């Protein structure tokens, strides 16, 4: 081998000077990369209305959970980590079952981009999102529901068998949810008010707490029905406004039936988003809020439970998403959030790898939601603002209490994680 090396040296005289020149030529490019990475780190999350030079379009793509990275706090299973595997760049899905826009295709020139400044849904697109439950409308209903008497209780239509559909004396209807334990009703109430802190409460139907007292003014008309309900006297239940004509929702790409069946979860680029019809884009705007919300509350009883079921039911993603419905105008309704915050935080070890991976699949956000998260991160005020809003707007808050100190710390930590994730998306 020594003679071979000598022959190479003799065959290529002057190779060392040439190599030196090549290295010198690469230094400016390397320096530029280092400067850009440093600038991205310093910028972290820029919400000002300008885009950094060279910013690439936002993407929806799967990332790896802390469990998959071998970090503490994971409880994921190998089957789920296999589910999250992403094909290499340019690799087609097995069998060609699903394709988006071709890599070299260009959207029509007159098609407005649904993404602004790399990671935010455009204002024009957000204006098309159905308004949901307006704040004034919600306040009026809550006031009327607290003052109304319960005229009748009916079985069915409101989830598990212990719940009831109530007809109120003012003519409206409400789902009455009776928790298996108080932390479920507490989670329902706190999740509703956290949505208010985040500015997305219009996606949740108005919800109030009520104290069940058979001889009390509100419940006295249904004293006989209460005897057959097996509810405990003095229990706190939630009253959620009944909404007519809701329909089920199947998860869209990249979490839909084809992605689940093929075990590949395709990312969507800004180019691919541009070729989707407006109705799908409007729904994706709402889904980005939903996944962020479910991560903060650690709610496992929605899309996460469907993904968990993929282990034994490969068709589950083609079925209705749990606790998510669609109003006639196309607006999504985030229903039954009692697994959030309290119950969800207690079961983090089991469900967090799923919630974290779902969050990492989103890199396009509503700018208003991102701003709220940035403020909660900067002020470290997530629990304080939730407590302030909860106490001001729910007269029965003290009956259930608030988050424990540990739960409050977890909420802030999850806000910080979302903030870092948004910054990471911005830096790409």
Automatic annotation (TrEMBL):
Database matches in InterPro entries: FJX1/FJ (IPR024868)
A GO BP entry: cell-cell signaling
Region (Disordered): 49-77, 94-113
Transmembrane parts of this sequence: none
GO CC annotation terms, alphabetical: extracellular space
PANTHER family: FOUR-JOINTED BOX PROTEIN 1
Protein name: FJX1 protein
